[in-house]
Amino acid sequence: MSNRNLILIAVFSSILGGVIAIAGYSSLVPSQNVIPSAPVEDKPVALTNYIFDSSDFVVPEGLNFVFAAKNATPSVVHIKTTYRAGAQSRNPFNDFFRDHFGDRYDRKGYGQSLGAGSGVIVSDDGYVVTNNHVVDNASEIEVVLSDNRSYQAKVVGADASTDLAVVKIDQTDLPAASYGDSENINVGEWVLAIGNPYEFKSTVTAGIISAKGRNINILGGGTSIESFIQTDAAVNPGNSGGALVNLNGELIGINTAIASPSGSFAGYSFAVPITLVKKVVNDLIKYGEVQRALLNIRIGDVNAQVAEQFDLDVLTGVYVSEVIKGGAADLAGMKEGDVIIGIDNKTINNVAQLQENVAINSPGDRITVKFIRDGKKREIEAILRNANNTFDIVEARDEFEVEGATFIEISKDMKEDLKIEGGVQISELRAGKWKDIRMKEGFIITRIDNEEIENLKDLKDYFRNPRRDGILIEGIYPDGSKAHYGLGL
After folding, report:
1. Which of 250, 245, 221 is nearest to 231 (CA)?
2. SS3 (DSSP) at 472
3. CB atoms within 10 A of CB 65
4. Active site residue: 133, 159, 202, 458, which one?
5. What DSSP string describes 398-451?
6. How far from chain centre, in Å, is Cα 20?
7. Which of 289, 267, 318 is nearest to 394 (CA)?
8. How far, in Å, CA of 241 to CA of 244, rounded?
9. Which of 20, 88, 192, 375 has its CA 20 to 30 Å from the CA of residue 52?
10. Contact status, residue 177 vs residue 171, Cβ threshold 8 Å
11. Is 100 a catalytic residue?
């Protein structure tokens, strides 16, 4: 055998041996399928410390605070208020301002004080929503836009029951807020609060929705409606009346209050939901007065104690303790002891939710009330009525309040009967300077310091710019007896 043949045989033997060795190894080791997580061309591979170029970075959907802030901030305004001598704003944050900033917030000039808050532009022709406590009793209201333009504003209407008010500035083409949906928001969603805390303009803070339908008893009960959105977005003095927005920058609430032992943010803030805001704003602009819809029932939250006391089968809902005769609920067939669990297609767990879902309607609207009676679920249709138990439009009352005295216009017939050219009448008198001088309800002011007071405008103008520390008031009672009083300012 030649040397060439020997070399070929050796090479062939080596190859054959390698094949046999590989085959033997494969028969001893189980086979595995390895599938890449993504083709290289579809998904780049990088080490954990790799830094992407900023142009490659995309903020995950639902966390784009930048977009929401840019979208909503232009519609949020700074509201500055001035109060005449002796007038008290009901803004609970004004004392906090003075404690931290001294005279900067205490005096504008002799006999005047200042306040501050926020507002949200709701129409491009100058309507701005804010809190009632921000503008209540203010003699002057200044609205400063996010671009620093400044305008004087007038109050269009206010509603103490929801702590909302609408003011108007004379300007068009304004950046109005876009309305969102506060009914379908969920606990845990991100939200932004935008306002002017401590006069830090256009401040944006982030948080989540902590709870819905929260009643914190800050508005005094009675006819007040509290169904707040609770958040942990930082809200401080000056934020009142500002915007609570979702991550689309849409308005879902008006920031109103904080729960805090110190007066500054401590983790809880509260906003009026936009469903209620829209109803109040539309009514105030159209009528000057909120057209409040009522079921005319007395109610309370159901809890374990109530359930045990009245032998109820549920632990949530609204217990009806009284049905007012002739009211909407009575005419619809509701009875004392019923437990309301739903309005239309919405579940009702407490009084706050019931109040909100009734209040967003108007007198004459029909709602479906779902309730439990004797352990059985029932439904009725109720036609809502106003406080006068009618469907009529409630006219706005033109009145003016000074130091516990409420003044109204007098009728033409009263002028003729008393043979006077004009005047304003005290319709209500509470504790204060006017009552201290022994003036009585019904008194008609005709002159102050020898100046004619023919109507409410004259009275408002005088008290916005008082001439001296004390005034002489002249007038007449409805029985024709004349009187005069001295009042210190």
Report:
1. 245
2. strand
3. 14
4. 133
5. -EEEETTEEEEEPPHHHHHHHT-S--EEEEEE-SSHHHHTT--TT-EEEEETTE
6. 82
7. 289
8. 9
9. 192
10. no
11. no
Q: How far is Cα 95 from Cα 237, in angstroms, rounded to an integer?
A: 10
Kindly tell me the number of DSSP H helices and DSSP E strands found in the chain.
11, 25
C-alpha 84/C-alpha 96 separation (Å) is 19
3-state helix, strand, coil in the chain (%, to 5): 25, 30, 45
Phi, psi of 373 (to 5 degrees): -135, 125
Q: Which residues pair with 369 in a beta bridge?
A: 343, 380
Q: In sequence order, what DSSP letters do the residues of 207-229 get, joined into one string?
A: EEEEEEEE----S-STT----EE
DSSP assignment, residue 361? S
**Rg of the chain over all Cα atoms, to the nearest angstrom:** 34
**What's the maximum distance between 2 C-alpha atoms anywhere in the chain?**
152
Count of residues making up the chain:
489
Contact 51, 82 (CB under 8 A): no
Determine the distance from the C-alpha atom of residue 110 to the mean position of all C-alpha atoms in its chain, rounded to a whole number: 34
Nearest by Cα to 465 from 485, 489, 443: 489
Q: Is 163 a catalytic residue?
A: yes
Query: For this structure, is 99 an active site residue?
Result: no
119: tokens are 């507002």
Nearest-angstrom CA–CA distance, 385 and 332: 12
Q: Which of 252, 190, 249, 208 is nearest to 70 (CA)?
A: 249
Strand partners, 77: 119
Averages of pLDDT over runs of 10 residues in the chain (489 residues) are: 51 50 44 32 34 48 82 97 63 41 42 86 97 89 96 92 95 97 94 93 95 87 85 93 96 90 79 97 93 94 95 96 94 97 96 95 97 96 91 78 83 86 88 85 92 86 69 91 87
Give the C-alpha separation, 389 to 398, whole Å: 22
167 in Cβ contact with 156 (< 8 Å): yes
Q: Measured between alpha carbons, how far is 78 from 197 in angstroms, rounded to an integer?
A: 10
CB-based contacts of 432: which residues, under 8 Å, 6+ apart? Answer: 403, 404, 405
DSSP single-letter state for residue 355: H
Cα 154 to chain centroid, rounded:
20
Around Cβ 468, how many Cβ atoms within 10 Å? 10
| Contact criterion met (CB below 8 Å) for 120 and 241 | yes
- 12 vs 101: CA distance, rounded Å: 98
d(C-alpha 25, C-alpha 67), whole Å: 60
Token pair for 487? 């009042």
Which of the following is catalytic: 136, 159, 163, 283?
Answer: 163
- The pTM assigned to this predicted structure is 0.71
